[in-house]
Design a protein that fits this description.
Bound molecules: beta-D-glucopyranose
Number of helices: 21
Low-confidence stretches: 1-52
CATH architecture of one domain: 3-Layer(aba) Sandwich
Number of strands: 26
Strand content: 15-25%
Helix content: 25-40%
CATH class of one domain: Alpha Beta
CATH topology of one domain: Rossmann fold
Structural class: alpha/beta
Mean pLDDT: 92
Distance between the termini: 57 Å
CATH superfamily of one domain: Glycoside hydrolase family 3 C-terminal domain
Largest sheet: 6 strands, mixed
Length: about 775
Amino acid sequence: MEMACMHMKMRALALIAAGVAATSAWSADTDIQSPVVAGGSGGFALQRPEIYHAGWVDLNKNGVKDAYEDPAQPVETRVEDLLARLTRAERLGQLEQRPIRNGTDRKDAALIAAGGIGSYLGAAPEAGPRNRLQRLAVEESRLGIPLIFGFDTIHGFRTVFPIPLGLSCAWDSSLVERVHTVAAAESAAAGVDWVFAPMVDIARDPRWGRIAEGAGEDPWLGGQLAAAAVRGFQGTDFGQSGRVAACLKHYVGYGAAEGGRDYNTTEIGLPTLRNIYLPPFKAGVDAGAATLMSGFNCLNGVPASGNRFTLTEVLREQWGFQGFVVSDWNAVKELIDHGYAADRAQAAAFALTAGVDMEMVSNCYRTALPALLDAGKLPGSVLDTAVRRVLRVKITKGLFDQPYTKPAILDQAAATALAREAATRCCVLLKNNANTLPLKNAGTVALIGPMAANRHDLLGCWSGLGREEDAVTLQAGLAAALPGVTLRVVEGCKFEGDDASGLDAAVKVARQADVIVLALGEPASFSGENSFRSELGLTGVQQQLFDRISATGKPVVTVLFSGRPLALPVVLEKSAAVLMAWHPGIQGGPGVADVLTGSVAPSGRLTASFPRSVGQVPVYYNYRATGRPLDDYMDGTRDPLLPFGFGLTYTQFKYGATRLSGDTVKNGVITVATTVANVGKQTGTEVVQLYLHDLACSFGARPVRELKGFQRVTLKPGESQEISFTLTTHDLGCWSAEGKWVIEPGRFEAVIAPDAASGAMVGFTLEP
Ligand code: BGC
């Protein structure tokens, strides 16, 4: 059933993508597309300029400025005025979200005009089709309530950036904010009011394909990057043009899917829910996110899309969230499939009363709630609360005052430059023996592997309206970056299948080269929604390819492209150098080439641990201690191959011992300091990380390490810098099972280190 949905969605996107106009400045017009002057500042010939309203729009066409139509009125006044005018059918209509299929779906026209649809998802590439639907709502319906259009702008819209997991490895909130600012502008110009992003699910299991869409395993870093993404999408006011409403998803615990199988059940104890899975959502809510999406997963026996505890007690009562919650695709109806609700009416009642305001696709609300309301089984006030929340966001978005998408000229060159910067910044150097990298005076370079000349898989799992032809391959990137070098390129094998017939030719090319760049990994389709794996190795016959090439004895630089951490101990051991590039987006080729050739030094750090084998999963740095020392497996070590926070660069850094300002917290603060020195021969950037350990916590045992801060430091060769972090008493707290931030006196330890597995902790006391 879900597969069918997925396919339908893919088809809809393909139809949409096929309609994108190839202009050098992407544009949006009202109705029929008009030409854009490439690179110019104008050039629009509006077909229907009269539909642009400056200020007041008489939505119900009565010639009177009613309160809800008046931008000068406070939002709440407008909400209440409008709510009071709505019939029950119109109220239910505001909670109904449908997919756009191939532009205007004529079957929906009557329902839109009757006020029976509140929102669409899956936007058109140009604003024309979107504005046509909007005109039906604004001009044909009784009260002219505009629709709100949502779209999955996950890592870029037309300019495709690295997958979020890759971007998180930059450990840089401002980069995340800049990327999503561009994504917002491109989305908004195409008629998107609202993006289904950022995904802030914590993921500890790389088998789960959606690990690609989030920021990895750490709740603190996840929170920082969630807030940055919200700021990027929404700016300071998501009502401004070029901005979109954000949606934190998938609330909550979705990343804990058992076995890494997507949509699977999740069992998360309260201390872990409060301290690991909820914090990125809280950070996004505090940053002002307009909406949240409730997840597909069943959480501790109660589906996330019918979970009153998480949706109302936590989100509304404890956090004071004012926006609205949309269900994930069909998730309200799926309360039945989970074995939680008996039928559509019960599913609708459970979801609405739990706190799901808008229903994506399955339309149980509109069809099943009237009977329950008639029978007095559901109070009208529950419905009204949800409608208020939706109207509040629509009004704040400015849709009542400017329902139609305006033309916009976008700076494509700047967006492309940012995509290249982001592609360099997501690269994590995992190994570099004997300064194999950067490639300098390389003589003959053999570029081998399924990613060598591959555009498609650079794009990653959610490519929005990105186009393969915008993507620049590693081959093109390296050719441009190494002008004096002979570059010989051969694919060797595909990502999938067992055809090893190309291996001999690849070995031949390898033998004639001075250095080999092996571009391997997994295809984009292996990660993202409903793409989970039971193995974490190279796909197809790539391991054979690697083994054959490695057997030539030539130095091998492996560049890994994937949507998840892979378990590749042999590749790590036998390669001279390994660079993790994720799925880096349309500028992946030039960006990775910048790093390989040293015009940009790598500065990424892992945000998810890399296991040695699938059997170690889940393996994450912020685990709890056990009663006895953690032992190794009978057949292998317990430690990950590469820890959270790990990453090398083209120089080396040396850390001094961690020092404290005292043995106790004084006046509410303690300073943690060290000296970091660049002891190598190149300028480099280090991500200096601060970890804390609370030795005894009666609210629930704390992890052996928790990230509490980081600083990016760029040092010249021979330079050293004093790095210090200030921890306040507040920083020493954690969430209790009840959702209170509690601070318990006692012993703590802290360390400043280059990754989660290094450094010696030093202890201090928080006195009562
Ligand atoms: C996904 C969401 C997405 C939604 C709308 C669902 O299947 O889980 O992440 O936003 O579809 O496309």
